[in-house]
Amino acid sequence: MYGWYFWETMTAHLRDLNLFSILIRICLSVLVGGILGMERGKKNRPAGLRTYILVCLGSALVMMTNQYVYITYQTGDPMRLGAQVISGVGFLGAGTIILTGRNKITGITTAAGLWTAACSGLAIGIGFYEGAILGGIAIAFTVSGLLKFDIWLRKKSRYLDLYIEYNAEKGNFSGFLQYAKEHRLEVHNIQISRDYSWGGADEKHRTLSYIVTVSSQTHRTHAEIIEVLAHEKGVQFVEEL
What we know:
By secondary structure, the protein is an alpha+beta fold.
């Protein structure tokens, strides 16, 4: 009975805004942000350990400031600043999303991680420790623990997005489509990426770049599909997106 009373008293003290609870929230935000940022840092992503810590810590500070204003001055909406953090952190996440020259998108997981780190910081900042800790564990498991499963799932997908550079001097793209059909491959969503030329005055080649979605009518791995397409005479380069 005494233990339960002590726990209730300690919990109430931690949810209140005081020097001890502020210290706990700051340390917890650094810890949760650091755990979330470590996996991205190991992969040398633009947003790594320090970025995640700063996002989580900043969100916690904003929420504590909001709580302080609400308690001290008895005015304002206790959730207003938190809402601004949720929408405002989007610009930081957008900066990590990169579209490469071959129309390959990278950085989406990092951007989502930054947003969830901000959400964790808000939960810590308002004193919702249970949600922050359990949510942080779930986020870390999703980013790190489900990575291999995500890769396996993508490899098992029937559809394959490819970037293809095709030499128009050696044939036309309709020939490529016929070649794919002969090898029981279906080509969908054809997008012309760009065309360019290189070579001297006596040697001029025209290369077209395509983004296509390919599916196989027979059981093949992604590597086997790429190997088949790479042997078509006009294909100079093929890469999975």
